[in-house]
């Protein structure tokens, strides 16, 4: 029986995947993708069908786990934020070469405007890079419908499908109608062409030629796709290409219908035939796309085409930042709505570490010690504790990507930085810090690696952390001298003890690990409420 | 008919509990709804907002355009002012007056209140104090929901009360009743002061 639910775009995709016979989700938390996996974890179908939903250690292990499930013939979903696709770029590119056996859908959630991210990269480029089809839902209902379409398509063409969402798709709720039928999970079955799954050059060359041919077929499919369509308009002074949720902002500005011809694109490779049909009607084309100007750049090419192309590159639409109804309104040449000026009374209110958070006490103690060391540099990492860069702490000098604290401290220490201190969270440490620590040990680097362990993945809302209860054993196992694996409890009353430990390890010329451990106060509150 | 609402506050204040009740009522009424939320880093004590759109017809954009919001509903007075450029010229501001001061340069309260009172259509009330007086300090958000319901024409107050019953039902009758009481107090204040 069909029913209506109020769902986030993330949840709509998750429900669509469950209804499409999902056997497993493989994911590492990351805004704005986290709610896909959380929804699956809590859904009754997951328990009933023994659907895999345990968080993985990082996006690479997620991608590989899902590829293994696809190899075994079952339907698997991978989820992460856009930069997670960098972490798993190797198996992602490899999966285009192996192809999919059981349906394989990779959901990558982009964050234009960087609400909670370090860059604005547009995952659609990865689709073209890997020669993989990309689906980009324009609303929550489409996110639900596309989940099944993507799994079916993945099995029909034997290729993984990249599903691209953006923040406003992931984190906006709308009424979603679900189908009555729930597809059964696939049974165990292996690929018809086993050679394709062994990417030795002798096999990979054959597969690569096939993939190039298939990519042309994917484009023909995109031309025929029900998610892509060309609609004629009364006014041919302008043609519009609207990708994904850009379509919504376009229609928002034309409540009585768009007067111009519109090509809506939600499935790639870019359907060039439809663009040519649009071009036969108009001389000027406005490209509206969330993220980077992927379609626009391809339309422009290098040589004069006789067409005027408008979009982000010529600043008809702002070159960076997410689309808004206002930005699209301006691009369409429509007048602004009457509005009030911004108030001068309002002060900025940036995010901050929670009151009572253990990271705060750790940074306080660290600052108290390092003020005595003029040359000290602190290499930060990705998580709540990145806010240690902000006032009142000003503790960090760098933050780049997951795990970079440990390895950058190593490189700087070799270059003469002293003390070289890394600050990394527990979940980030197991995600990408462990291998860097092994580098430090093998080089006997003069670094202090501080693991600020709050027993959870805090920034994304408190998901299980892969290393909980194992950090000392992991560090010792990698080869850190147990005498220099120190544990402290970050509380104001412990400042003297904490500072003593930090100072001793700064003065030790070798690899030190300081584990500063106290539960995240947000998860603590939740655990207390449960009891 | 359509109404666009910006819900504002500070991360951790729980603006989404208001949205949850409205969402439940809207779904029951068969209205279209879109609600863009903020998750992730911004939730950590920073300014947060949710764009909530209700309509009898399909809604396209998840975001409200500048000058398009019929209501700004805020759990914090300065945060209500932050979204002024989004308010329609005929729009209402419904705001809590109790400040949430977690930044060193929070403006003087007199200036914040003067700026609020300069706006043509404002209902400002101390929802924390009202909830406390009622003996349900955790009902502050429902006081604000009640206050906004006086100008939320797309949903009858009774539909919102039903929403409260559905959302809080599993927590027991006492919780439901204290939230309904908080809602009614906000509604009454708004009707007298708008």
Features:
heterodimer; A: 531 residues; alpha/beta; Rossmann fold; 3 domains; six-stranded mixed sheet; 17% strand; globular; B: 194 residues; 7 helices; 41% helix
Short overview:
Chain A has 20 helices and 18 strands. Chain A has 531 residues and is an alpha/beta fold. Chain B is 41% helix and 22% strand.
Q: In terms of per-residue confidence, which ranges of chain A show pLDDT below 50 for 5 or more consecutive residues?
A: none
Percentage of residues in helical conformation of chain B: 40-55%
The CATH architecture name of the largest domain in chain A reads 3-Layer(aba) Sandwich
Spatial order of the strands in the main sheet of chain B?
2-3-1-4-5-6
Number of strands of chain A: 18
Number of helices of chain A: 20
Write down the domain tally of chain A: 3
Q: Which range does the strand content of chain B fall in?
A: 15-25%
Mean pLDDT of chain B: 94
Quaternary state of this entry equals heterodimer
Q: Structural class, from secondary structure content of chain A? A: alpha/beta
Helix content of chain A: 25-40%
Would you identify the regions of chain B where 5 or more consecutive residues have pLDDT less than 50? none
CATH class of the largest domain in chain A: Alpha Beta
Q: Tell me the name of the CATH homologous superfamily of the largest domain in chain A.
A: Thiamin diphosphate (ThDP)-binding fold, Pyr/PP domains
Widest beta sheet: strand line-up of chain A: 2-3-4-6-5-11
């Amino acid at each position: 029986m069909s029913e209506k639910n109020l769902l986030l775009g993330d949840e709509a995709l998750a429900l669509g995947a469950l209804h499409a016979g999902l056997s497993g989700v493989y994911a590492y938390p990351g805004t704005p993708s986290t709610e896909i996996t959380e929804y699956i974890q809590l859904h009754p179908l997951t328990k009933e069908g023994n659907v895999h939903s345990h968080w993985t250690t990082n996006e690479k292990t997620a991608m590989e786990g899902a590829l293994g499930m696809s190899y075994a013939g079952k339907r698997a979903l991978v989820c992460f934020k856009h930069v997670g696709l960098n972490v798993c770029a190797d198996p992602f590119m490899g999966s285009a070469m192996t192809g999919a056996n059981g349906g394989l859908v990779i959901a990558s959630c982009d964050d234009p405007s960087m609400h909670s991210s370090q860059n604005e990269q547009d995952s659609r480029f990865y689709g073209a890079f890997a020669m993989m089809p990309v689906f980009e839902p324009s609303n929550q209902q489409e996110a639900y419908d596309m989940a099944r379409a993507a799994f079916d398509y993945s099995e029909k063409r034997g290729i993984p499908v990249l599903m691209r969402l953006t923040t406003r798709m992931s984190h906006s709720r709308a009424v979603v109608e679900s189908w009555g039928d729930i597809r059964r999970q696939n049974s165990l079955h292996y690929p018809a062409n086993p050679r394709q799954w062994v990417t030795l050059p002798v096999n990979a060359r054959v597969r690569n030629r096939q993939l190039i041919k298939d990519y042309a077929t994917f484009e023909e499919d995109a031309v025929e796709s029900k998610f892509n369509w060309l609609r004629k308009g009364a006014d041919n002074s302008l043609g519009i290409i609207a990708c994904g949720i850009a379509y919504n902002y376009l229609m928002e500005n034309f409540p009585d219908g768009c007067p111009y011809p519109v090509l809506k694109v939600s499935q790639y490779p870019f359907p060039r035939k439809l663009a040519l049909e649009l071009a036969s009607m108009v001389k000027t084309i406005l490209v509206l796309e969330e993220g980077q100007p992927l379609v626009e750049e391809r339309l422009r090419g290098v040589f004069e085409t006789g067409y005027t192309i408008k979009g982000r590159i010529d600043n008809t639409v702002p070159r960076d930042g997410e689309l808004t109804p206002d930005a699209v309104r301006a691009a369409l040449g429509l007048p602004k709505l009457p509005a009030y000026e911004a108030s001068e009374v309002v002060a900025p209110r940036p995010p901050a570490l929670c009151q009572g958070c253990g990271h705060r006490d750790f940074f306080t103690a660290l600052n108290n010690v390092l003020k005595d060391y003029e040359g000290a540099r602190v290499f930060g990492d990705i998580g709540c504790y990145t806010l240690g860069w902000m006032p009142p702490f000003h503790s960090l000098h760098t933050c780049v990507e997951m795990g970079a604290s440990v390895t950058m401290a190593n490189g700087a220490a070799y270059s003469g930085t002293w003390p070289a201190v890394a600050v990394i969270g527990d979940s980030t440490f197991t995600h990408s810090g462990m291998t860097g620590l092994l580098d430090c040990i093998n080089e006997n680097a003069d670094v202090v690696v501080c693991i600020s362990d709050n027993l959870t993945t805090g920034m994304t809302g408190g998901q299980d952390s892969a290393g909980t209860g194992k950090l000392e054993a992991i560090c010792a196992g990698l080869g850190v001298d147990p005498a220099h694996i120190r544990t402290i409890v970050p509380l104001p009353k412990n400042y003297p003890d904490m500072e003593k430990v930090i100072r001793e390890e700064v003065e030790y010329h070798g690899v030190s690990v300081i584990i500063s451990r106290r539960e995240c106060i947000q998860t603590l509150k939740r655990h207390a409420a449960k009891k | 008919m359509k109404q666009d609402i910006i819900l504002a506050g500070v991360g951790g204040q729980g603006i989404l509990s208001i949205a949850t009740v409205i969402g439940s009522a809207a779904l029951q009424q068969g209205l279209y709804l879109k609600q863009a939320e903020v998750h992730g880093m911004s939730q950590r004590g920073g300014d947060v907002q949710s764009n909530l759109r209700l309509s009898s017809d399909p809604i396209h954009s998840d975001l409200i355009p500048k000058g398009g919001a019929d209501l700004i509903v805020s759990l914090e007075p300065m945060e209500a002012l932050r979204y002024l450029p989004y308010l329609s010229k005929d729009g209402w501001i419904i705001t809590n007056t109790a400040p949430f001061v977690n930044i060193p340069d929070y403006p003087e309260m007199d200036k914040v209140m003067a700026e609020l009172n300069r706006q043509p259509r404002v209902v400002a009330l101390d929802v924390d104090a009202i909830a406390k007086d009622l003996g349900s300090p955790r009902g502050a958000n429902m006081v604000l929901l009640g206050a906004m319901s006086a100008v939320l024409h797309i949903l009858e107050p009774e539909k919102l009360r039903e929403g409260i019953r559905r959302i809080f039902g599993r927590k027991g009758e006492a919780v439901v009743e204290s939230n309904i009481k908080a809602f009614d107090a906000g509604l009454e204040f708004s009707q007298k002061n708008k």
